[in-house]
Amino acid sequence: MPNSRIRRIVSIALAAASAFWAALPGEAHHAVLRFNLEEMTAAADRVFIGRCLAVEETQDSIAQGQLPVTRYTFQVERAIKGNLTAQITFQQLGHPAHRGPAKSSAITMHGKPVTPATFLHGMDEILVGERMLLFLIPNYLGGKVTYPVGLYQGAFHISQMPSGQQLARNNINNLGLFSAPYNGTAMRSGDARTIFPERDNPLADNLQLSSASRALPGKRGALPLAPLLELVDHINTAHGAPPGQITSRGANLQ
C-alpha cells in the first residue's frame, strides 16, 4: 500500500476516535485534544498500573493494508478500571520516534530522519522496564489497536524518590489535568461529578477524599501516585463504573 494511503487511513482512524484533528490535508500532522482527569477517566475503558515487559515495532493487517504498529506487553500490577488479565498485550498505530546519535539533535525512525509526514505527533515512547499508569481508549479498527487517552496525556511514567514516594508524570508535565475544559469526547461539562475546571478550586465540595488527594490541583509537575489513584478511583465510581479487577493470571491481547 502506498505510504500516502497509509498516512490517510491512519489520520482518518485517529480523527474518528476523537484523539486528533487533522490540521493540514495530506500530512500526518495533528493537534491533540486536551483532557482533564475526569474526562480522561470517563473516556478510558481500561486504567491500570503495570510494568512494560516488551515493545515490538512491527506491522499488522488493518483497514485492508499493512500498517505500522507498536505492540506493548505489560505485567498488570493494579487494575483501576476495566477487567484485565495479569499480563496484557495491546497495539498502537505507528512507531515511536527515537533520538538520533548522541551528537545529533535529529529525531529518527528506523535510522531515517523523521518528518511531519511520517511521525504520528503525540505518540509517547514507552521503554521496557518502565512502570506506567495508563488510560487506554476502547479498541478500534476491528478491535486491533488502542492508545492512551489524549495520547501522551493518558500515559503517566511512574518514578520513585529516594524517600520512597512514588510520583506520576505525563509528557506534558501533567498540564491541564484540573484546568482543561471538557472537550466533549467522553462527556460534557454538565456531566461533571468531581472536576470543575472553571472554578478557583476545581474539585467538587464535600468529596470523601483524603487531604492529600484534595491538594492535588494545587500542585505542579509530578503528582504523588497514591493520592492520584484515590482520585481516579473516586471519579470512576462517581460515573457508575465498577472498580477494575484482574480477572485471570494469564496473558491476553486486549
Mean pLDDT: 83
The figure for the number of domains is 1
Radius of gyration: 18 Å
Helix content: 10-25%
- Biggest beta sheet summary: 8 strands, mixed
Q: Give the count of helical stretches.
A: 4
Outline, from the CA principal axes? Answer: globular
Detailed description of the structure:
- The structure is a single chain.
- This protein is an alpha+beta fold and 254 residues long.
- It has one domain (3-239).
- The chain has 4 helices and 13 strands.
- It has helices at 3-16, 37-43, 211-214, 225-238, and strands at 20-22, 30-32, 46-62, 65-81, 83-93, 98-99, 107-109, 112-113, 131-136, 155-160, 166-169, 223-224, 245-253.
- The strands form 3 sheets. The chain has an 8-stranded mixed beta sheet with strand order 12-11-10-9-3-4-5-13. Strands 6-7-8 form a 3-stranded antiparallel beta sheet, with no helix packed on it. Strands 1-2 form a two-stranded antiparallel sheet.
- Strand 7 and strand 8 (112-113) form a beta hairpin.
- The two termini are 26 Å apart.
- Residues 9-30, 108-112 and 114-119 have low confidence and may be disordered.
